[in-house]
Amino acid sequence: MSAIDDLRQTVARLRAPDGCPWDREQTHRTLARCLVDECSELLETIDQLDLPHMREELGDVLVQVVFHAQLAEERGDFDFDDVAREINEKLVRRHPHVFGPGHLDSSAEVLVQWDAIKRTERQTAGKSETSVFKHLPPQLPALMYAEAVWKQVEKKQLGAPGMVDREKIRELGTVLTEETLGRQLFELAAAAQAAGLDSESALRQETSRVVRDAKAAWDAANPQG
Q1: pLDDT per position as a tens digit, 14-45
Q2: Are 215 and 163 a contacting pair, CB within 8 Å?
Q3: Is the alpha carbon torsion for 4, 8, 45, 177 positive or negative?
């Protein structure tokens, strides 16, 4: 058997009637926090390029995937093979320039093609876009949420009076380095705490304002019916 088959059997054994009491109590919801924790620990090893430790943490993340698949298999919903098969088919389908006759020369071209294929898939499945912004998981940290929203604002050239100062953003981008960015973010977080402010909440609220303004401007420029 392969190593992944051994792991699947181990998890199934832990979930068996005579298996581990803790593992038998778990559900998709109770494991959610474990996944966040394990991903955070993996990210730390990636930041440090600690490859031996990274291998261990990748295993911890893989256990989460196998565990969720085992829970689903017990209910008759799907199994690990279904998960692997679906993502493999998606990768092949969205890379016709690799697995088909097409050819692309740049990452930018790949991203444009990826989005086009994704839109076609959603239309085929009857999933029309109901908002100018694609859905973003509410659990995203505020900084990642802000980055994802700005990416969509720029990609679709969204705007509204007073929504964002693009010129200021461009000017900041020309002088920022990873070191200065980290220092300024830390100083802002420290100043917020000294002032009794919640920097996570403040950034999330500001990003939500940008989303509301962009949506309003988009709806005004693209009236339905």
Answers
A1: 999 999 999 999 999 999 989 989 999 999 99
A2: no
A3: positive
Residues with Cβ within 8 Å of 71's Cβ and at least 6 positions away in sequence, in order, are: 15, 26, 27, 28, 31
For the chain, domain boundaries: 3-77, 94-124, 142-221
Q: How many CB atoms lie within 10 A of CB 164?
A: 17
Helices (H), 50-141: 51-75, 80-93, 96-99, 107-124
Q: Which CATH number does 3-77 carry?
A: 1.10.287.1080
**pLDDT confidence tier of residue 63, bands split at 50, 70 and 90:** very high
CA–CA gap between residue 30 and residue 24 (Å, rounded): 11
Is 222 or 82 the better-scoring residue by pLDDT?
82
